[in-house]
Structures are given as C-alpha cells and as structure tokens.
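Q: What would this chain look like folded?
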Amino acid sequence: MPLHTITLADGRSLAYRSENRHRPPQRAVPARQISAAQVFRHACNGTATLWTGDFHQGKQLLAALKKHARKPAAPAPDPQTAFHKHRLAQSQHSRTANMLLVIIGAGFTLDLPRAPDVSAALADVYGTPNREPFLLPLKQLLGFIGAHQWHLKGVDVPALDGRIHVPFGVFSPVRGEYVGLLRDAPLPPVCETAFDIGTGSGVLAVLLAQRGFRRVVATDCDARAAACARANVRRFGLHAKIDVLQQNLFPAGTADLIVCNPPWLPAKPTSAIESALYDPDHAMLRAFLRDAPACLNPQGQIWLVLSDLAEHLSLRPADALPQWFAQAGLRLLAADHVRPIHGKAADPSDPLAFARQRERTFLYRLAAAQG
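A: My prediction, written as structure tokens:
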C-alpha cells in the first residue's frame, strides 16, 4: 500500500497510510472543534484536518463532511456518461472524506477520548503492530473496524451451507446468488481436477470441492486474497483437496473445469479492493479467455461468471462476449442467469438504478469449439 509522509503544523512529519490511490495531502492542521465546512475548505486546498477531539464527535464530523461534499448530480445524456460521472463523484467524495485524519500510536493505539480499542481491527489489516505512529483517515479506520467485525462473524453463503470469513481488502461474496448458479449447473463429463482463477475469498473453490472434484487449484495475484482463501479452505476442512496459489491466472497443468468470476466493469480501480470490480478494457477477462482453452482437458468446460451491467451502461457492446468466445475458439453450451438481490439492485435512489434494475448475473458454460 502507498506510504507517504505528511508534515503537521508543529513541524513533525508522520507516515501516512491509505488504501486508496488518491493523491495524499502534503500537510495537516490539528483541530478539536471544527465545522464540516471548514474541513471541506481545507480539503479543497490540499490540506488535511488532524482530528484530536472526542472519537464519537469525530464520527459525527465525518458524517457531516460527507453530506457537505455531496452535491446533486445533473442528469446525464446517456448511460455511459452517467457511469463516468458517478465514478468521478465517488472519487471526489472519497478523497474529501479521507482528508479527516487521526494519529495511530505505537502498537495500533488510538489516543482520543472515548476511542475504542482498535488494535485487533488494525492488526487484521496490517499484521505486525507498528513501532512508530502514523496518520490514517478516520473514514478508513471506521471501515477497518466494520470489516473486522464482519471478518469474525462471516458471511452466510447458503449454497455452501456455511459461512465465508473475509478480512478487509478482500471482496466479500455478498452477492451469493451467483454461487447458487454454480451449485446447480450440470457438471462436465469428467470431474477430477478444477481450476478457480481469481479465487478471492475462496468461495468457488470450496463449492467445487463440495461438488466432488478431487483436486482444486485456486489462484489469486493478491496476497490478502490468497491468505483469505487458504483460511476459508481450512475452516471447511478441505485443505487436502484445495491448493491456493498466489499467482496471476493459470497454474501449471490442465483441468476438467476452469471457473472464473472476473471484474465486471471496464473502469480504473481507485483502491486494491476495487480491482475485484473494475478492470480497464476487460483486460483480465480477455486474458482469461485467450489462455483458458489451452488449460482444458478433453471434454473439459469453462464456467464464466459475469454480470451484464456493463452492457446496460454502454460500457461493453452486446455482441462483444460472443465475439470474444469465438476468437478464443470456444462454443457456448448454455447461459444460466439470475437477478441480483443485493441492496443497490432495488434502490431507486442509486445513480445507476436505471441499469441495476435490468442487470442479470450470468453463468456462461463453454467448451472448446468442434474441429
């Protein structure tokens, strides 16, 4: 993650940690009493506010800052413009909210009145406790605390008859409807070996092992995701069947089934976790389709999980997927789909509601083209 140094008003320089890719502030001014409007003005000038007051008042200030920074968006002339305006607004709101900082002391301590013990939540993100203090956006600290609680609790995945535990920085399988598609799909003629490419939390690798595959190899290029997947594999008692490798795309060898749930939207991510959602020009999807056929055993299949939201936002032509399948030498066996059931799908106030209301999540089942 990026590490920068910020100069405080008293002349000290402290390391600054952030999970996003915004340009960091160069300086920070301390405050125990300040309005959201003042914090916003500082932020517009590239100056962060270092909160030194009561923890709960800091949370209230952050909420007020978010409201102050949010402005009604003008109607967009077309779906693609609506999406890009939405992403720009998200980035601007995030940058502003992340300009309210706190100092994390040695050993992941937070020395603010009425502050909770944040050491476990920060250890979940960073691992070894720090020896030197550093600056952290209050918004991200609250995100770490919430993510830690969810990590301990886990996410119920009915298709697995169990819970998947996901730490901060790994995409959570909250959209569990697609897992049901893979649970119900007819298996290939041979079911010995499977690859799960871009495994994330490991949810699909666990499902494949539960469905009878004797060996599953799951890969992910992200270290946090690989560690998360290994932990979930152990929780389900499947470590003898599933190998998790930290690497990009395909492991060595071939498989009877190759599964992939790539990023769905062709856009630039602004943080590491957003890489599970956004991928410029569908780079991972294209690379997967290009190389997957060579990794298939005879009679093997490829299962691709993909939303059609990009099509409803005019970010991908409706005929793009059939063309990419054909270019990769693949034929479509079947395309099962399900309507998303997450909160945004039914929220009429969402800026992209016009597209989310039409979205479907597909399971494309593919095989090598004949002759």
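Residues 3-150 form one domain.
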